[in-house]
Backbone:
């Protein structure tokens, strides 16, 4: 029986979010909050492993009280328990402080139910750093396995796991000891529509909510803004490309027109002395 904990995050939908022109920061209030897409695949994989080997899936997140919504989404996917750590002391955390806070919560969860596997999404769409998962693994002193796109086997009795790690030109097969941490790619699975019983369970579910005072042996200097050495000087949205031409007609006509444009530009480039 496995106990798998998925670390998740509620994020703003970056397809909709706007930038604040005065502060050069993301206007998080301008977009709806969603479960980080990479984390949805992490939870789905945890649920699939539970079906294969038996056990339990817990999810853990740090954030403001509305992050309960992300936990409920995980219950819809098939998670069994959810934990939210929320406190003003956690505010302003970068990836270093976030990994510390989540580690303290994982240590508390593990004292009651030992954890065999921690699973995270590859990264969050509002940060794109991919640092929190490996940071947790380092603090827990367990192996971090990144860019995972397939779990081949888990042998709890033998104390090992075999995975495929995605590479640019293929994958590598890795065997690791348990417990360990996986950060998974989106292509590890497809997240299906949730069955009605899970939706009903999620609507009624109330997660465990902990403040900083509920955690043990916490160094407050490593929490939130105090524990965050990262400084973001500015953030901006890339400019949309200008110009361009809309090609009309059939696919063959579009290909012919595009080849003509490329040949014209090649001739101009050569006339301008750009080619030897």
Residues:
């Amino acid at each position: 029986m496995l106990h798998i904990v998925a670390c998740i995050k509620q994020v703003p939908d970056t397809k909709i979010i706007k930038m604040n022109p005065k502060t050069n920061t993301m206007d998080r209030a301008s977009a709806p909050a969603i479960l980080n897409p990479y984390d949805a695949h992490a939870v789905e994989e945890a649920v699939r492993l539970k079906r294969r080997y038996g056990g339990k899936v817990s999810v853990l997140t740090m954030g403001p009280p509305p992050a309960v919504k992300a936990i409920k989404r995980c219950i819809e996917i098939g998670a069994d328990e959810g934990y939210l750590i929320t406190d003003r002391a956690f505010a302003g955390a970068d990836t270093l402080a976030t990994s510390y806070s989540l580690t303290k919560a994982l240590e508390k969860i593990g004292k009651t139910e030992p954890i065999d596997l921690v699973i995270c999404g590859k990264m969050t769409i509002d940060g794109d750093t991919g640092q929190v998962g490996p940071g947790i693994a380092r603090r827990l002193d367990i192996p971090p396995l990144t860019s995972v796109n397939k779990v081949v086997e888990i042998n709890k009795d033998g104390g090992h796991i075999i995975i495929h790690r995605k590479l640019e030109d293929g994958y590598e097969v890795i065997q690791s000891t348990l417990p360990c941490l996986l950060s998974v790619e989106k292509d590890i699975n497809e997240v299906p529509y949730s069955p009605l019983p899970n939706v009903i369970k999620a609507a009624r579910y109330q997660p465990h909510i902990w403040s900083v005072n509920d955690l043990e042996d916490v160094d407050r200097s490593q929490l939130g803004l105090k524990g965050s050495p990262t400084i973001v000087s500015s953030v901006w949205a890339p400019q949309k490309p200008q110009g361009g031409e809309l090609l009309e007609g059939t696919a063959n006509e579009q290909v012919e027109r595009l080849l003509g444009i490329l040949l014209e530009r090649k001739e101009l480039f050569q006339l301008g002395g750009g080619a030897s």
User: Anything to note?
Assistant: The mean pLDDT is 90. The first strand starts at residue 2 and ends at 7.
